[in-house]
Amino acid sequence: MQEGQADPGLYDFARYRERPRISWPGGKTVAVWVAPNLEYYEIDPPANPHRKSWTKPHPDVVGYAHRDHSNRVSHWRMADAMTKHGFPGSVSLSISLCQHHPAVVADANERGWEFFSHGVYNTRYTYGMDEAQERALIEDSIHTVREATGQTIRGWLAPALTHTPRTLDLIAEYGLDYTCDLYHDDQPGPVKVKSGKLISMPYSLEVNDHYGFFVYNMSPRDYADTLIRQYERLAEEGAESGTVMCIPLHAYLIGQPHRIGPFEEVLRHIAADGRAWIARAGEIADHYYAHHYAEAAHGA
Amino acid sequence: MALDPACLDYPRRAEGYDHDLYPWSAIRDRKPIVWPEGKSVAVWLCVSLEWFPITPSDTPFRAPGHMATAYPDFRHYTAREYGTRVGFYRLLDAFKKAGVTASIATNGAIAERYPDIIADILADGHEIIAHSTDMNGTIATGLAEADERALIEQSLASIEAAGAPRPTGWLSIARSQSWNTPALLKEAGFDYSCDWVNDELPYAFNNGLINLPLNHELSDRQIITVQQQSADSYARQMEDAFDYLSGEAASHGGRMLPLHITPYIMALPYRIAAFEALLGRLAARPEAWFATGAQITTAWKAQQ
């Protein structure tokens, strides 16, 4: 990025009409990917000078235990619903989960899910890191996930969405293919980096279960309805040029007993609709790089 | 300038938790639980019965629902008292009508000030859980250990002085504990506490104290007060949860649905009917075992 500039220079403006047409495999109109956040929050993390982890003195019992629910109860509930309806996960992974609860990571790996890095802990932030520290974080991510799963990470969602001006350049330099940190579009697109290539993979804050339940205070059925409306609109517009819908999840939210039933109806709806290319983020990136990246990046 | 290297040091990055309070366990790996009479879903009603001094304390933090205006905050003081004088009796009637028993998480001050309430709770066969002294009795790290020990003892003493048996369960205000709380609760002789929301069945802390998870996401405070949803929506959500847990129980063993109720929230005239109807529908479900916290933890413990 252009550090200190009013426009960070992340990408070129491209209006939502007359773009080069994106076509997904099989004539599908919308690529749907599900992004479970498999996270570990520390009970007593050191303080980052730029952001506090917990609002209360440690231990923040409800904050910590709520998130721990994922790794004891709701991961499997969420994952079983996804598997039942044919949705693989592309995991936003706190890589330390590979050490703390390897059974959770192994379960996701055995289901054929893809992993990208979401930092070491969701209680450690990138703010304030120098280049060497940020490189160490990226290298740790690559090595830890490879050792635990055999997979090489291809994407990045910054831990707790904390970035430095170098983050995107560095992940591209290390050969990662996509970032989930930019929210400017419903289609993938090139991101400007110093070396290598990088694309933005549409993630979502707006239909993230955290926003649904803790920003917009939706009921479980309202959230399910929101996802279906999001899907219907993107599937319709995707007939012109393929769109991407991401469903970002946290098991401790979507996997609560009053929410998982309505959510399953969303998966059933999308799976039965016929217009969805249900894919992993890496498959969407592969297709985009192979067929659409060059044209979109031309002149960029 | 670099970030403090301590921010990239991970001293507890190893298998298991980054603390020694309780061991990791995935619910699906555990031996399936069977509730009494072959029921598959334990429904645990837990009511928080609280007294808010009109002189709020912020040490260590101000309790949720506490005074909000400049002194004297008549509106919140009296609206909370409404829950105790009127709303709680609507709940007692609703429980009786549905033929169910509940756990009443009771501030010691309620027992000191309104001993009739304690007698009414006991007469209907409900359990009393200790729930601090009054709503100034919050706990968090920073509260001196001796003060926390005294707060716990005072909570128990007030309830016992009103003629109730010594409670075996504990609920902290806002489920907030200090690092000392699990040890102090064990020391005070409690069988279980309800503060950690990380599970859906009882489990044991390393010190032997049982944690009976009282899901805050399913509480009337979260759904109605925080998320601003209607009582009808709340009731629908509880039934959706019951349906899901009932299905899960068929393949994974007994499950539990904790309903955390607050008199000044749920027992208002325009909300109580939705709650009564929900209780009636749940009580009619053949899978439902309405039980107190003590009954649930006892049934669980017998199967460990």
Topology:
The complex is a heterodimer of chains A (300) and B (304).
Chain A: E1 30-38, H1 61-84, E2 90-93, H2 97-100, H3 102-110, E3 114-117, H4 131-149, E4 155-156, H5 167-173, E5 178-179, E6 189-190, E7 199-200, H6 209-215, H7 220-237, E8 243-250, H8 251-254, H9 260-273, E9 276-278, H10 281-291, H11 293-297
Helix pairs in contact in A: 7-9
Chain B: E1 41-49, H1 74-98, E2 103-106, H2 108-113, H3 115-123, E3 127-130, H4 145-161, E4 169-170, H5 181-187, E5 192-193, E6 203-204, E7 210-211, H6 220-226, H7 231-252, E8 255-261, H8 263-266, H9 269-283, E9 288-290, H10 293-301
Parallel strand pairs in B: 1-2, 1-8, 1-9, 2-3, 4-5, 5-7
Antiparallel strand pairs in B: 6-7
CATH class of chain B: Alpha Beta
The fourth-level CATH homologous superfamily of chain B is Glycoside hydrolase/deacetylase
The CATH topology of chain B, please? Answer: TIM Barrel
Largest sheet of chain A: 5 strands, parallel
What count of helical segments of chain A does DSSP give?
11
CATH fold group of chain A: TIM Barrel
Q: What proportion of the residues of chain B is helical, as a percent range?
A: 25-40%
Helical content of chain A stands at 40-55%
Largest chain-chain contact?
Answer: A-B, 55 and 63 residues
Report the count of strand segments of chain B.
9
- Percent range for β-strand residues of chain A: 5-15%
Strand residues, percent of chain B:
5-15%
Helix/strand-derived category of chain B reads alpha/beta
Instruction: Give the CATH architecture of chain A.
Output: Alpha-Beta Barrel
